[in-house]
Amino acid sequence: MREEAIKPRNTNRTSAAIALAVVGAVLLAGCAATRQTRSVEPAGFLGDYSQLREGKGGEEQLIYIDENTNWKGYDSVLIDSVTIWYSQKTAKLSAEDQKNLTDFFYQALHDELGKDYRIVDRPGPGTLRLRAAITQAKGAQVLGNTVTTIVPQARLLSTLAGVATDTQVFVGAATFEGEITESLSGRRLAAAVDERAGAKSLGGLGGKWKDVDNAFRHWAESLRTLLAELRGQ
Q: Residue 133 pairs with which residues in a beta bridge?
């Protein structure tokens, strides 16, 4: 069945949505709160994946960067509303969860990129355009996280049971696809696909969506770091 996008109901700037994030950073005082999964499957949001290569050295699992771009020539960013890409997993999310997930991701991106760029609401000269989607999101069970962190037997069981799906039984996971384009011409400058799951650590505690929350923060911080590196800062 053809997948299609689910638009968030609230798209204002107090939102906190999407997942377009792109490349490596450390969360929560040196504690690896999430880990990259072994593989990721494109969902269709980007459309064309021919430019993407396998990531290496802390990059996203699939990534593309236009090496000919003058990244110093951009001082503002237009962040599109985050969407949830329809799949068997995301179809199970309640309307409230969909809104909360997209709102939080948008806010994480807005807050991080706002430290280095002007956040604008329309295309223009010197403006990057960021579009992204959450293509899979699975909430962790709070009780499960607590038990597997404290009880060794439960931790072992969850690890073994999660091998087949690459997601530990009691740990949340999230996947994103996103791209950066030149806002006026629409030329693709960067793109990425990545999936992260919760790590077995105290940093992974805190609620049903804590691991997904951490993944969104990681992607937002990573995107800011990547853009800074591309500008030579």
A: 83, 177
Check: CB of residue 223 under 8 Å from CB of residue 20: yes
Task: Count other C-beta atoms under 10 Å from residue 130's C-beta.
Answer: 25
Are 141 and 170 spatial neighbours (Cβ–Cβ below 8 Å)? yes
Domain residue spans of the chain: 5-230
To the question of pTM greater than 0.85 for the whole model, the response is: no
Dihedral (C-alpha) 225, 186, 174, 27: value to the nearest 10 degrees?
10
CA distance 151 to 161: 16
**How many angstroms separate the Cα of 102 from the Cα of each of 95, 154, 200?**
11, 32, 25
For residues 31, 131, 117, 17, the Cα torsion angle rounded to the nearest 10 degrees is -50
Residues whose CB is less than 8 angstroms from the CB of residue 9 and which lie 6 or more positions away in sequence, other chains included = 95, 99
Residue 137 burial (10 A CB sphere; 0-12, 13-18, 19+): buried
Render each residue's pLDDT in the chain as its tens digit; 233 residues: 444 444 444 433 323 333 333 323 322 323 357 787 888 888 888 999 999 998 887 788 899 999 999 999 999 999 998 888 877 767 777 777 888 888 888 889 999 999 999 999 999 999 999 998 888 777 765 544 333 333 433 433 333 334 344 444 445 778 889 999 999 999 999 999 988 887 654 344 456 777 778 888 889 999 999 999 999 86
